[in-house]
Amino acid sequence: MVTISKNRQTEPIKNLPDGPKTPRLIQTIRGVLQPLKYLEKSSKEYGDFYTVKFAGFPTQVVISNPQAIQEIFTADSKTFYAGKGNQFLHPLLGEHSLTLHDGNYHQQQRKLLLPSFHGERMKAYGNTICQITEQVINQWKLGEVFSARQAMQEISLKVILRTIFGLDEGERYDQLRQLMGELIDTIGSPLKSSFILLPILQKDLGNWSPWGKFLRQKQQINELLNAEIRERKAANDFSGEDILTLMMLAKDEAGQPMSEAELRDELMTLLFAGHETTATALAWALYWIHSLPEVKEKLLKELNSLGENPDLMAITKLPYFNAVCCETLRIYPVVLFTFTRIVQTPIRIMDYEFQPGTLLSPCIYLVHHREDLYPQSKQFKPERFLDRQFSPYEFFPFGGGNRRCIGMAFAMFEMKLVLATILQRTELKLAENRPVLPARRGITMAPVGGVKIVATK
Ligand code: HEM
Questions:
Q1: Ligand 1 probe mutation, 63, 155, 398, most atoms within 8 A of CB
Q2: What are the residues whose beta carbons fall under 8 Å from the beta carbon of 53, sequence distance 6 or more?
Q3: 343 C-alpha to ligand 1 centroid (Å)
Q4: Which of 86, 405, 414 to mutate to test ligand 1, by most ligand atoms within 8 A of the CB atom?
Q5: Fewest CB atoms within 10 Å of the CB: 5, 327, 421, 456?
Q6: Domain holding 205: CATH number?
Q7: Within this chain, do residues 194 and 271 fall inside the same structural domain, yes or no?
Q8: 410 in ligand 1 pocket by Cβ < 6 Å?
Q9: pLDDT confidence of 5, banded at 50, 70, 90?
Q10: For the chain, what is the domain count?
């Protein structure tokens, strides 16, 4: 740690905060296997800023102070790189994915993708979401235990495939659905997902090795996506309302359309970012709603107040419904951290002046559990979101600033419509009467055991 000058309050400005002293390997094992416990312990010991060291990664600063988060999210976009910190996603998403880039290319790709997730477009996806949910509900057998996470994954994968390609049947669609499901399972468990995070484990030892299997699955998905793009181009039919059509029609400021490789990698980015995350959030929501009868009762009362066959947009505006979704995303945020921000030009944040190359990791989980913002933070209390409004630096399950999740509105919309359809059409109960805890699954924090549930009506 270097003390370089005096700040406004004549406190020394620090470059790096203190942090755990355990060897890198131990910090890595704890961070991968018991992420929440490790975060809570470290923040209790070191406060709102602390430094962690993971094997194979540069030292990074974990930040859980809302003022600091605000300064990061509102800083000039040239202050940080974020794409550079996401290179571990390269094998999964492909080199052209906007998540791996900064500067002009990132901004341009965001501009090309954003119209697909605009409010007006969203309405068109509403009926699709409800229809797919009904199809999946119809497969549930009374009295049979099933995994809520798997069922929600089936819904969210079908929704994203249908909205992206405008299709829900055919050989290519079935293959994509199966391969995406298998890929997510390959990177599913805490141990298996380590190879995504740790380059040292990325050894292709054939189809039976996790990395080898992953590479082959990814190659097959790429081939399917390339084939779809080529067929669309050859047919020269751009009348569809799906996201791929919009992406193929979009032109950058120089009038250039996206290349085939760009289209493929952005499709993969949306498929990946858009379904596992939403499925996890939905599984958690079902867990909380069915473990707390008073929450379910209030939700149903509010939903029923709209009468039979309510307008879809009216559902999305119900205040208690919204509060339940927000509380679900607060208590166990689907991802623990936003993308890492790598300092590009020196920046002063509160007592620190961070130098170029420093990695900053705004921690969604730790902010969402600050007792000064969320008293009794481990309890599920949707009323918090009715009693006060939280700033985008106090509640940010979708990150913020120039990297804020592109699919935020889509995910909230989907969560509400899927839950409303399930609550209106079925009666479910939890199959097990014990608390469900989160564990790492791919890049998300998912419920252990997937939330076992039974349909009773
Ligand atoms: C509950 C569901 C979801 C959660 C919790 C979530 C969360 C996040 C977070 C935390 C980030 C990083 C933001 C930052 O670093 O500031 C992100 C980025 C992103 N998300 Fe989501 N997401 C969800 C659903 C979706 C959906 C449905 C899509 C698209 C279909 C999507 C597409 C993306 C993309 C493309 C980025 C990268 C943005 C960029 O690099 O500029 N996400 N998401």
A1: 398
A2: 19, 20, 24, 27, 59, 60
A3: 21
A4: 405
A5: 5
A6: 1.10.630.10
A7: yes
A8: yes
A9: very low
A10: 2
Distance 145 CA to ligand 1 centre (A): 31
Q: With a 6 A CB cut-off, is 83 part of the ligand 1 pocket?
A: no
Clarify whether residues 276 and 293 are in a common domain: yes
Ligand 1 center from residue 397 Cα (angstroms): 9
Q: Is residue 96 part of a domain?
A: yes
pLDDT exceeds 80 at position 332? yes
Say if 248 falls within a structural domain. Answer: yes
Answer whether residue 306 is part of any domain: yes
- pLDDT in the model for residue 444: 87
Ligand 1: distance of its center to the CA of 9 in Å?
A: 38
Task: Give yes or no: residues 412 and 450 share one domain.
Answer: yes
Specify the residue with its C-alpha closest to ligand 1, atom 20.
405
Regarding the beta carbon of 411 and ligand 1, being less than 6 Å apart is answered yes
| 362 and 445 assigned to the same domain | no
Q: Report whether pLDDT(193) > 70.
A: no
339 lines ligand 1 (CB under 6 A): yes
Q: Is the same domain home to 368 and 405?
A: no
Q: Residue 413 pLDDT > 80, yes or no?
A: yes
Domain that holds residue 302: 75-334+397-455
Q: Are residues 180 and 80 in the same domain?
A: yes
Q: What is the pLDDT of residue 180?
A: 87
Report pLDDT for 442. Answer: 74
